[in-house]
Specification:
It is a single chain. The protein is mainly α. The protein folds into 2 domains: 2-41; 49-288, MetI-like fold (Orthogonal Bundle), CATH 1.10.3720. Helices cover 74% and strands 0% of the residues. It has 12 helices and no strands. It has helices spanning 2-40, 45-50, 66-97, 100-112, 118-136, 146-169, 173-181, 186-197, 199-214, 218-223, 241-249, 258-288. Helix 6 (146-169) runs antiparallel to helix 9 and helix 11 (241-249) packs antiparallel against helix 12. The longest helix has 39 residues, at 2-40. The model has no long low-confidence stretch (mean pLDDT 85).
Length: 293
């Protein structure tokens, strides 16, 4: 009887937590939708989606989201170009080459990078990485997309490493043994057997890392500048969606104005992309999880 009471209490608590989480999510979506609908009553959705200028805080106002999208995706792509090869290489080394003792000690240290406050990464990008890049790349602006992109790559590397290593570690042993049995080297086994077998987990880690990079705020706010540009040039200042939201949220823009409501349409744009990426990741893991098992 006591056992049943405890089970009921635990079940009720878990149900409450699930309902609360759903309520918060729905509330956020409703707030974004309500304010976005109010915004689009005054501003054309065609202009919002197609205009190449984003200047709602200037005298000559324009409300095209494309410059913010360009800045967001530019820094995210740079981060991925750094994080994917580095993170996957580390994961392969830990899974296929490293001694168990070394792996047991090093993996938690790598995951500690994920616990570093992003504001620290931002100042690292501005004070350390940008001056180093300026010595290598003449004419690089003090605020640019390249420096925060690289540092965001450093930030998301542990996520790719940890999830990819977990995916590699659950690849059935008989697949490796079969590869060794036909004369494959350790490198060939890792690249032609283990990685394809763990591809679902690796792809999921990359997609979640993209989502994390798209939603990053402090690194780009500190090191990328606040100049919305419709460009893919990583050497000039840019502005991302999250940076703009921070800029407007500082309190200088009157509430209930069109300028203030732009943070809600920017927020729902960011939410849509993050939602899509997270669901793609979930779909990939669900569809291919047992492909090689």
């Amino acid at each position: 009887m006591k056992y049943n009471v405890k089970e009921k209490i635990i079940e009720s608590f878990l149900s409450f937590a699930a309902i609360l989480n759903l309520f918060i999510t729905v509330s956020i979506i409703l707030v974004l939708l309500i304010e976005s609908v109010s915004f689009f009553k005054s501003i054309s959705i065609i202009e919002f989606l197609t205009s190449k200028e984003w200047t709602p805080l200037f005298d000559k106002k324009s409300y095209g989201i494309l410059p913010l999208l360009c800045g967001t995706f530019l820094t995210s792509i740079i981060a991925l170009l750094f994080a994917v090869p580095v993170g996957l290489s580390i994961a392969v080394y830990l899974s296929e080459y490293a001694h168990p003792v070394f792996k047991r000690n090093v993996k938690p240290l790598l995951e500690l990078l994920a616990a570093v406050p992003t504001v620290v990464y931002g100042f690292f990008a501005l004070v350390i990485v940008t001056p180093l890049l300026q010595k290598i790349i003449p004419g690089l602006a003090g605020f640019n997309a390249l420096s925060p992109g690289i540092v965001m790559g450093i930030m998301i590397t542990p996520m790719i490493t940890s999830m990819s290593e977990d995916a590699l570690s659950i690849v059935p042993k008989y697949l490796r043994e079969a590869a060794y049995g036909i004369g494959s080297t350790r490198f060939q086994t890792a690249t032609r057997v283990a990685i394809p077998a763990a591809s679902s987990g690796i792809l999921a880690s990359i997609i979640l890392a993209i989502s994390r990079a798209i939603g990053e705020t402090m690194i780009v706010a500190i090191a990328a500048g606040q100049q919305p540009r419709f460009t893919l040039n990583p050497l000039v200042p840019i502005e991302t969606i999250t940076t703009y939201i921070v800029q407007v949220s500082l309190g200088d823009v009157p509430h209930n104005s069109i300028e203030f409501k732009t943070i809600f349409v920017a927020g729902i744009t960011l939410f849509v992309f993050s939602f899509i990426l997270n669901n793609v990741s979930f779909y990939i893991r669900k569809k291919y999880r047992e492909k090689y098992v």
